[in-house]
Amino acid sequence: MSNKKIRIFIIDDDESFLFVLKKHLEQKQIFEIYTFNTGEAGIEQLHLDPYILILDYNINRSGGRMNGKEVMETAQKHLQKLKVIMLSGQEDGQIVFEMIKLGIKEYIIKGATALDELDEILHMYMSEKV
């Protein structure tokens, strides 16, 4: 793999979770991390061409108008090869099923094992990028 860092966007309205997740990923020293607390803010920066988008479903509590589904749909229209990981506290089976139907391949429920699950998925995506 080249020395170029893998660009990741994280969109979540929980500032403390954003901080923890960013610090966790920065420790690996192979990612270039951008964080946003609204979907609109992340969408505005898509020209930076992220390879991975980590996204919460309920992100409109911090004043944004878009939820995770809307952000995912918009982002994938602009970046067809974008890898999207839904990392959310949203456990409603119907919403999870709807997101999978829309193309989410990775849906992680926030909890004790979420960072380990995320690490496994990121390792898989990094292997694909080689």
TrEMBL record:
One matching Pfam family: Response_reg
Q: Which residues carry this modification: 4-aspartylphosphate?
A: D56
Report keywords, A-Z: Phosphoprotein
PROSITE patterns, alphabetically? RESPONSE_REGULATORY
InterPro entries documented for this protein: Bact_response_regulator, CheY-like_superfamily, Sig_transdc_resp-reg_receiver
Domain Response regulatory: from-to ranges: 7-125
What name does the UniProt record give this protein? Response regulator
Species: Rhodocytophaga aerolata
